Amino acid sequence: GAEVTPRASADEALSALDDAPYHILLSDIEMPGADGYRLAEQALSVAARRGERLVAIAITAYSRPEDEARSFDAGFQRHLCKPIDPQRLVAAIRSVSADAGPAGG
């Protein structure tokens, strides 16, 4: 029942936040231009200013403990290492979905 809105860059993803509220952000860390850390920080800030709850999941090849810590510092609630098992991704989305959506509801 999820709607997925793919974007090619962090800037495109941030622009999409102007069009509609989103509940879950799935982002790679390594991207051209701005990285996923910056995207998460900015997207979560935009959502908070608008009174919305957005949760973020990092998808990355960076698997060291310090990489995971950096993801959490940027605001990601989950840090999934590639290659991603589809069932593991669905489980992660379900685990954060209770925290996603309109604030207060």
Layout of strands and helices, then pairs:
Elements: H1 10-19, E1 24-28, H2 36-49, E2 52-53, E3 55-60, H3 65-74, E4 78-81, H4 86-97, E5 101-102
Parallel strand pairs: 1-3, 3-4
Antiparallel strand pairs: 2-5
Helix pairs in contact: 1-2
Features of the shown structure:
105 residues, 44% helix, globular, alpha/beta, three-stranded parallel β-sheet, 4 helices
Taking the alpha carbons of the first and last residues, their distance comes to 19 Å
> Strand arrangement, largest sheet?
1-3-4
Q: Tell me the series of helices and strands, N- to C-terminal.
A: HEHEEHEHE
Characterize the main sheet: 3 strands, parallel
* Share of β-strand residues: 15-25%
Contiguous helical run count: 4
Structural class: alpha/beta
Q: Count of DSSP E strands? A: 5
| Helix fraction by DSSP (H/I, runs of at least 4) | 40-55%
Q: Unreliable segments (pLDDT under 50, ≥5 consecutive)?
A: none
Form type: globular
Rg over CA atoms: 13 Å
> What's the average pLDDT?
89
